[in-house]
Amino acid sequence: MIPLLLAAASPAAAAAVPAAKAPTLPLPTALQNVQYNFVPKSWLADHAGWLTHSFAAIFIISAVLLVVLLAIQTTKNEGLTGTLGGRVESNYKGRLGFEGQIQRVTTGVAVTFIIFATLVSISGI
Length: 125
Known about the structure:
- The N and C termini lie far apart (68 Å).
- The chain is 62% helix and 0% strand.
- Helix 5 (49-72) packs antiparallel against helix 7.
- The chain is elongated, with a radius of gyration of 34 Å.
- It has a domain at 59-75 and 98-125.
- The protein is an all-alpha fold.
């Protein structure tokens, strides 16, 4: 039995046995030349590509700007005390300081971000 195993393991024995070939099925002639170029697009993406890419550019710019504006904002009472309601507010509204202006700009950028996120989603790019 050992000589039989050694003979089967030799390269000459492997060359003597033909390798089993996987059967191939011919494709019908109609399916041989089919090219799949289907890319689903909206009407806007098909006819006004510049507009959809402009939406995407404004969306990305507003996203980056929103992150930067949120990062530079500080609250009046930072920490746990300010979070739990330790703030003191008054009804007096004078001129907006730097923090008030940043807050107003951040609100505008956030609204722009939401509007253009919706437009990019609807435009199909």
